[in-house]
Here is the input.
Amino acid sequence: VPLAFPIIAGAGSMTSIISLRAEYHQINIALAILINIIVVFIVLKLTKKIERILGPGGIAILEKVFGIILLAIAVKLFSSNAKELFA
Here is the structure.
């Protein structure tokens, strides 16, 4: 819980919601949050099983893949905001 809570409901989550608000309707964001809550609940409940199935190598690969996805999202947000700033 001490690690999961700040990641799930921390400052990054709030920043994401605020930046998504500029591009999407409120109902779409609300549905995405609801689906995310369900997925996070399932993943947190099955963490030990997932960890056993993937093993150390699988977890390392998963970390790299999600790191690249997070980087792509950050670059997209930065570039779209920079384009608006200098336009």
